[in-house]
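Components:
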Amino acid sequence: MQKFSKLLCNTLKEVPNDAVIPSHQLMLRSGLVQKSGSGLYNLLPLGLRVIQKVENIIREELNKVGCQEINMSVVTPSELWKESFRWDELGDLMLKFTDRSGRESCVSPTNEEAVVDLFRKQVNSYKSLPLTLYQINTKFRDEIRPRFGLMRCREFVMKDAYSFHENKLCLDKTYDQIHSAYESIFKKMGLDFMVVEADAGAMGGSDSKTHEFQVIANSGEDEVVISKEANYAANIEKAMTQRQPLDFDESLDNLTEVSTPNQKTMEELSVFLNKPLHHLLKSLIYISVKGEKRDLVQVVLLGDDNLNEIKLKNHLSVDEIYPATDSELEKSGLVKGFIGPKGTPIKCFVDKSVSATSAYVVGANKQGCHFLNFIPDRDGKMSPVDLRLAKEGDLVNGATVSIKRGIEVGHIFQLGDKYTKLMSATILNSEGKSVAPLMGCYGIGVGRTAAAAIEQSHDEKGIIWPKAIAPYHISIIIAAKNNPEINQLAEDIATECEALGLECIIDDRDVGIGFKFNDYELIGFPSAIVLGKKWINDKEIEVKMRRSGETLTLTRDTISDRLLELIK
RNA sequence: CGGGGUGUGGCGCAGUCCGGUUAGCGCACCUGUUUUGGGUACAGGGGGUCGGAAGUUCGAAUCUUCUCACCCCGACCA
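Structure:
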């Protein structure tokens, strides 16, 4: 039986100054974790219990759909990564080192290569497929900027699963199974989450299915575009929405230069010319990088739209893009604040929401000047592409969308045969032909999920754990000093509750009652039993419920059964 | 990497501008008494070479130079 007096758990009254979001602050204050370095955390006993519960829920649900658990070495040799070219592609994200014999290795940031290597050494026949392997293991990504405690660490625990298939149909089936297993996992943990369409990003193929599991929370680092009516949900990186209908300027007047001294922003210009923002066009200059090659790219958007950089990057299929710096603009003879699509030699893309036949105000590529009545079809040479960043109020299938912040706790991908091909992993299919199997990969951030649960479930007093991942279910608070009867009662009730699967911790610390109450609320056990006056005087037992804050009076003979009903 | 900021006991801070006793306060910790239904009160106590190095000075937490670490805003992502 766990006694609080023996538990390594020092709660903090004050907020450590480097924690800025609730989950991070509360994890530190309630003695769940301890920081050991930038993006590095030690799990203390209570924190570890939470993490283990998350892990076990994941295990249970994945095992149900036939996934097999394995454990791969955390350190992986460079050779594997070189086969997929990711040794260089992932670059500094990987923590690389050389051991005493001069072998290069890294601490795995993900395990596609390792699992393909395992697979190719173990599996030769289509008869073994489909096969889904997973592990719950430590990963290391040398994040550019670790932050928010367990939300974005460098070293973290991730559940990563990999599936292998003979054909797309089979991959789709497993993908859907994992999709629903993920829904069960996050539902079990009591999280309010959404499944959204995602961009495949750096980790996967480009035109395969991929979804993210986003926990809706204000501190989320992602933006999610949602429309319930249209049954639409997508990461903003991917979201393709339309603008509300616009009144275009249909004038056919000739292109006219107009003096616009010092009107450098869209807003200033809009006021100066007395035209709505969407009658102006915004020109952005980006540098695209592919290998050693650097190119200038011009992007033209409606004056009140913003660029979705991911869309541009995907459209160009380049390694990286970034806004041109002032000196790069100068070098190209462009005038910051007055850039426009008229007569520039730069490759130019225009967002689809710009009407090709309507008149716009554009920069004249000349200090202090703009053009009026620029009509794209007539006056420019631009290819229309969907490039704009979705925004609140846009339309999808006629329904308006809203934008919420989300924490990406899970991501599922269809990888196709990218890795099996690169690493020559083949199987014999039913026709006796050697083929590269298709793969899916599926991740869940374990620590991040625990953090997300706190983001979503806390109040000014502390954490409010959902039952499924609470470190203990009940804190039995001893509110009487040196009272053998009460002490015994606490032990008896604890034993009884544990028999029903309710985990108890007995708060037998030699501190004031207020201290115990505050810690119970801070750590956020779902309920507390208070043994003190009420028992001594009336033989009644007081029970507090953390989420509702209500206080109940129960009797000794029904207490454990009642608690089993009450703690949900 | 670019921009901003902070380093003083486990945590939160004052002191730094304007150098000068033995570096201070709150929380936490230890001892004793007290209190015991919402962080009780009192008394005593332990713990810091002021991130590090070099320099200026009779004298440096304080000034100078260099360095390291950490945090916040952006690019990365489970």
